[in-house]
Amino acid sequence: MSLRLPPVPFRHISVAQSTTAKPQSSFSRSFIKFSVRNCSSGIDTDNSRKLVMKVKEKLEKEYYSLPTGKNGRDDEELILWFLKDRRFSVDEAISKLSKAIKWRQEFRVSDITEESVRRVAATGKSYLHDSLDVNGRPVLIVVPSKHTPEMFEQSEDERLCVFLLEKALSRLPEGKEEILGIFDLRGFGLKNSDLKFLTFLFDVLYYYYPRR
After folding, report:
1. CB 3.0-4.6 Å disulfide test: which of 47, 54, 130, 156 passes with 152?
2. Are 159 and 202 in contact (CB under 8 A)?
3. pTM higher than 0.90, yes or no?
4. 185 and 10 in contact (C-beta within 8 Å)?
5. CRAL-TRIO domain: from which residue to which, for each copy (predicted)?
6. Percent helix, percent strand, percent coil in the chain, to nearest 5
7. CA-CA distances (angstroms) from residue 56 to 1, 34, 100, 159, 197?
């Protein structure tokens, strides 16, 4: 699967423009929708299981200092996810997965709580919708017009971003793998632009939560 991104981040799209938008980024009025499509290799279950064990063994030998358990180097579900992302290339999966696990450890993802992000979440600039979409996916809503870069430390915005992604993934119904992100660009202006955070967001989606 691959993430399809808008050609220009957070650019306001008028109603007239949205009707002529290219089909690879789905626009509706002033909304941008992220979507994913399946690009994984058609590999059978037995072979994928063997590759998971191969990655697991190599991680144990070469990255033994990485944590274990859920979202750790021995998490077989996580390993399989990164194998699919890297089209079942063992070396590429190990490279990307080891960096993701290190990032989770350094960012202290497991320590982020709702209370710790309550202040920045109160702006309403990003939240998890109460309902699933028509395809049964959790829905993350982002309202950039409510984001003012100098209002909070960037680390606070980053923690909110990761907290919401983790929360959305925890609500995935059985058999579902994707979440839907909707950017409501109504009222967005130059004062709301934040390239540093946008870079963080794209890095997080590509490197640490791939194919979501």
Report:
1. 156
2. no
3. no
4. yes
5. 123-212
6. 45, 10, 40
7. 22, 31, 15, 29, 33
Lowest mean pLDDT among 34-38, 103-107, 115-119, 145-149: 34-38
Neighbours of 186 (CB within 10 A): 11
What are the Cα distances from residue 165, in Å, to 83, 94, 178, 180?
21, 23, 11, 10
Cα–Cα distance between 52 and 144 in angstroms, integer?
A: 39
CA distance 104 to 109: 5
CA distances from 90 to 51, 79, 97, 130 (A): 7, 10, 10, 38
pLDDT digits (tens, 9 = 90+) for 147-177: 999 999 999 999 999 999 999 999 999 989 9
Give CA–CA dist 201/154, Å, rounded: 12
**Residue 23 vs residue 139, higher pLDDT:** 139
